[in-house]
Amino acid sequence: MKLQPDRIETQSVTAYGPGWVAIQGEKITHSVLITSEGVRLDWHCQNFEDLGPQHFAQLAELDVELVIFGSGERLRFPRPEWQVGLMQRRVGLETMDTQAACRTYNILAGEGRKVAAALLIESVTSND
């Protein structure tokens, strides 16, 4: 039985790979914020170590009920003190690796939820 529609009517992640995601078919190679309401913003951080309270304060300003934080190629959690603004606004934050965050965002956005994805896209280094 098919439970998901063929096409969701909101901004979605259409593909991903090491060092990139595609949003509505456009390949993005830097960290990005997207919402199910159609907002798309650059998220100015190149790796997990660049993150700070200002990045999560930006998330608190979004008009959403839940933020899915994609922490890069592996699961890493933001500091609790960075999440104060989100907690004050009663915005949930779920952390997972970026690929899982893409999938979860698509499901929730497809269900009509007011959700955002904060996707950390780390540059891929070559060992050539």
TrEMBL record:
Pfam families assigned to the protein according to its UniProt record, in alphabetical order: DUF498
Residue stretches in coiled coil: none
CDD domains: Xcc1710_like
Domain of life: Bacteria
PANTHER family: NADH DEHYDROGENASE [UBIQUINONE] 1 ALPHA SUBCOMPLEX ASSEMBLY FACTOR 3 (PTHR21192:SF2), NUCLEAR PROTEIN E3-3 (PTHR21192)
Name of the protein in question: Xcc1710-like domain-containing protein
Protein species of origin: Limnohabitans curvus
Lineage of producing organism: Bacteria, Pseudomonadati, Pseudomonadota, Betaproteobacteria, Burkholderiales
